[in-house]
Design brief:
The chain has 345 residues and is of the alpha/beta class. The chain contains 14 helices and twelve strands.
């Protein structure tokens, strides 16, 4: 073995900082850096590929101590979900999303309290969905670390149409975010995001971030197979409230049925549809496009950085205005015989 394996092994002692380890890798020009304890036992390994990932993805969400990517998972509010959560936390879960179309329920409040009592300080809880201050107040009081805002505003959701329940997304995001900010609770605008402008509007209305279901559903990394229709490359996209999802998961622990509290219903009432979205390519190119587009949007608003957006909105420097139907037509492409719309390159 000594003839084919190196004996000049470059190592670092346990306790070395990530910056120091990276510098050792650069200086030694090695691909791997073993981290050993005082007795020479291997306790960790730093790879050159980590350096490349840090360079290529500088804004990746990482744990402040371990530097591992943050991991989230969605669960329901049924007893079986508590068992699933225990396994997820054991595997290293960072944030749990409680998935429900109407978050202000006794089931979710009890689940939040259970998580906080059982896994205090180990996982953050993103609760919801809510659209009013009263709904938000109950979940915040239960211990929610963040809130998802939106009911019936998603591209595949028909809750407002069928159930006559919900709220305009802009109003919901503004009202709930204003209230949640008083308690230091961040919010997520969930639904209605179909372009860069919608992201900018959601953030200006008070959301801390956005969910982009349909916007990312067409990317190559999203689940599902591509198919062609009328010369366009598409990918299937269905709502959890669609009959397709309910029938495919026809069991007592069905996530789609539990989300809408319909496990015991003999007649299934759809609150979503099944459709298709256009191919968006790889998320590695699409996300940078969204980031750059948002930067240009803030630049055009006169906002130097995202942290100054909310104060400028509250102070009236950045304002929302009503647009007439004629103004909306004027604000889009018009008076052309034909055109090609390419969003990014």
């Amino acid at each position: 073995l000594s003839a084919v394996m190196t004996t000049d092994v470059v190592t670092a002692r346990y306790g070395v900082t990530l910056a120091e380890a990276n510098q050792i890798l650069r200086d030694s020009k090695k691909g791997k850096l073993p981290i050993v304890d005082a007795e020479g036992n291997l306790v960790s390994l730093v790879a050159r590929s980590d350096l490349l990932k840090n360079r290529d993805y500088p804004w990746a969400s990482k744990h402040p101590q371990t530097k591992q990517l943050l991991v989230g998972a969605a669960i329901g509010t049924r007893p079986a979900d508590r068992l699933r959560l225990a396994k997820l936390v054991e595997a290293g879960l960072d944030v749990v999303v409680i998935d429900s179309s109407q978050g202000n329920s006794s089931f979710q409040i009890e689940m939040i309290k259970h998580i906080k009592e059982t896994y205090a300080g180990r996982v953050d809880v993103l609760a919801g969905n809510v659209v009013t201050r009263d709904q938000a107040a109950n979940l915040i009081a239960a211990g929610a670390d963040g809130l998802r805002i939106g009911m019936g505003s998603g591209s595949i959701c028909i809750t407002q149409e069928v159930m006559a329940v919900g709220r305009p997304q802009g109003t919901g995001v503004y009202q709930v975010s204003q209230f949640a900010r008083k308690f230091g609770v961040p919010t997520v605008a969930d639904g209605g995001i179909s372009n860069v402008g919608h992201i900018a509007k959601a953030l200006a209305l008070g959301a801390s971030c956005v969910m982009m279901g349909s916007l990312l559903a067409g990317t190559s990394e999203a689940p599902g197979e591509y198919f062609f229709l009328d010369g366009k490359r598409l990918k299937k996209y269905r709502g959890m409230g669609s009959l397709d999802a309910m029938e495919k998961n026809d069991s007592d622990n069905s996530g789609s049925q539990a989300r809408y509290f319909s496990e015991s219903d003999k007649v299934k009432v759809a609150q979503g549809v099944t459709g298709a979205v256009v191919d968006k390519g790889s998320i590695k190119q699409f996300i940078p496009y969204l980031i750059t587009g948002l930067q240009h949007s803030l630049q055009d608003m006169g906002v130097p950085r995202l942290s100054e957006l909310w104060p400028m909105v509250d102070g009236g420097k950045v304002r929302f205005e009503h647009r007439s139907a004629a103004a909306q037509i004027e604000g889009g492409v018009h008076d052309l015989f034909s055109y090609e719309k390419r969003l990014y390159k």
